[in-house]
Specification:
The structure is a single chain. The protein is of the alpha/beta class. The chain has one domain: TIM Barrel (Alpha-Beta Barrel), CATH 3.20.20. The chain is built from ten helices and twelve strands. The chain has an eight-stranded parallel barrel with strand order 1-4-5-6-7-10-11-12, surrounded by eight helices. α8 packs across α10. The longest helix has 11 residues.
């Protein structure tokens, strides 16, 4: 079994780390550079940095903040939000990002994934998918623009298409679970994991240690991403990894 990764997510708005519930009710938390550095000290395997309003506001990701964050890290930094074209990939990679996470632009222009993969390599292309239950919970639709617009696309089908087009990883967020601390959406994660061969990162809903254990025991995800439990110091990354190790799950411990 491959080593499981624990990834804190920094949702950024106006240069500050923020957090909401079900993609709304956004509250300011703190400085992204300081948080990223602290999480690396705790043993984070990667850091995800998402500019949550960039797409909705029609602007690019804040390159200066990305560069400052990347310069203070040794672990990989994944950056998303406001990715519009191939030049945005290039600029963010030059600024220090190891991977680029793209959601809305890839749904609107799927060829962007294949163009980016061809130019920069699949290993740095992450297809971010925000999924929400529809049809009385029998299926999941893809939402874009920060969860504001239902595309009508099926989550599983889009994940398969993203892999075919060249994405090297799927970042799968449950909008229903996001910020609720009620646990990861095991059903949606399994539906996608069973359909693709590339790594899947679980996102949305983590609230306690047992949720990390559960997601790795009940699905084949490669990584678990969380935000509020780390931001509000309810858990540390080292606590999570020690708990996973106690449950015979492979993790990298400092």
């Amino acid at each position: 079994m491959k080593t499981k990764r624990i990834i804190p997510c920094l949702d950024v708005c106006d240069g500050k780390v923020v957090k909401g519930i079900n993609f709304v009710g956004i509250k300011e938390v703190g400085d992204p550079v300081e948080y990223a550095m602290e999480y690396e000290k705790q043993g984070a395997d990667e850091i995800v940095f998402l500019d949550i309003n960039a797409t909705h506001e029609g602007r690019g990701t804040m390159l200066e903040l990305v560069s400052k964050t990347a310069k203070n890290l040794t672990v990989p930094l994944t950056v998303g939000g406001g990715i519009r074209n191939i030049d945005d990939f290039h600029e963010l990679l030059r600024a220090g990002a190891a991977k680029i996470s793209v959601n809305s632009a890839a749904v609107k222009n799927p060829d962007l994934l294949s163009e980016a993969a061809s130019r920069f390599g699949s290993q740095c292309i992450v297809a971010a998918i925000d999924g929400k239950k529809v049809d009385n919970g029998n299926s999941y639709n893809v939402y874009i623009n920060g969860g504001r617009f239902d595309t009508g696309l099926d989550v599983v089908k889009w994940a398969m298409d993203a892999e075919r087009l060249g994405a090297g990883e799927i970042l799968l967020t449950s909008m229903d679970a996001d910020g609720t601390k009620g646990g990861f959406d095991i059903e949606m994660l399994n539906a996608v994991c069973n359909a693709v061969d590339i790594p899947v990162v679980a996102s949305g809903g983590c609230g306690k240690l047992s949720h990390f254990v559960e997601v790795f025991q009940k699905t084949s995800v490669d990584a678990a991403l969380a935000a509020s439990v780390f931001h509000y110091r309810e858990l540390t990354i080292s606590q999570v990894k020690n708990e996973l190790k106690k449950n015979n799950l492979p993790v990298k411990i400092l």
